[in-house]
Amino acid sequence: MSQLEVLRSEIIGCARCPRLVAWRQRVAVEKRAAFADETYWGRPVPGFGDPAARLVVVGLAPAAHGANRTGRMFTGDRSGDWLYRALHRAGFASQPTSVGLDDGLQMRDAWVTSPVRCAPPDNKPSTSERDNCLPWLEAELRLLDRTEVVVCLGGFAWGVVHRLLAGAGIVVARPRPKFGHAVESTTEGPLLIASYHPSQQNTFTGRLTEEMFDSVFSRARVHLGLG
Fold this sequence. Notes:
Elements: H1 3-12, H2 18-30, E1 48-49, E2 55-58, H3 67-70, H4 78-89, E3 110-113, H5 127-143, E4 149-153, H6 155-167, E5 184-185, E6 191-195, H7 200-203, H8 210-223
Parallel strand pairs: 2-3, 2-4, 4-6
Antiparallel strand pairs: 1-3, 5-6
Helix pairs in contact: 1-5, 4-8
């Protein structure tokens, strides 16, 4: 068993945050009407992708009826639909859809993860819940030792990734660049690229378009020497 597989098992078994444990389990029992016949995952969600990835995509947390239902990051909701379509167009995903653990999706040179592993109420983890969960992402980034680009989906991820890299002794830009779409931050390690999160709040309002989203992954491809 690889170290990433060991980490996956440890993440799935985590129960550090009582509020999040109660919420994710409640959602898994009560369900949404459209998914009433499905068995929800209802546990912490591990990262997903190519263990040799040079691109790492970091979001915020699993959605209650998305990854908390399916067991895969950014899977089963509209944010995930946007993300995997973009990754497929950029050549990082074998197909444009991600609907469940057994759908055959394979990642190519990319890994998808988040700082918080349990679905939080209102998509808002507390500071203590964030801090309880950060060691998992810290360990994940350490094991993904070929990482050259990190795409941060949202300001939450932008702040967390800078913090973790600095904590690992990697020199990061100071002051930290203000979050904004397509903003870049250079470090002694990976290039960090900011993107608006593909939440419905951003995609339905046009704040984030598919062209804008594609530009982020095109920039990642250039940095990775993929053209």
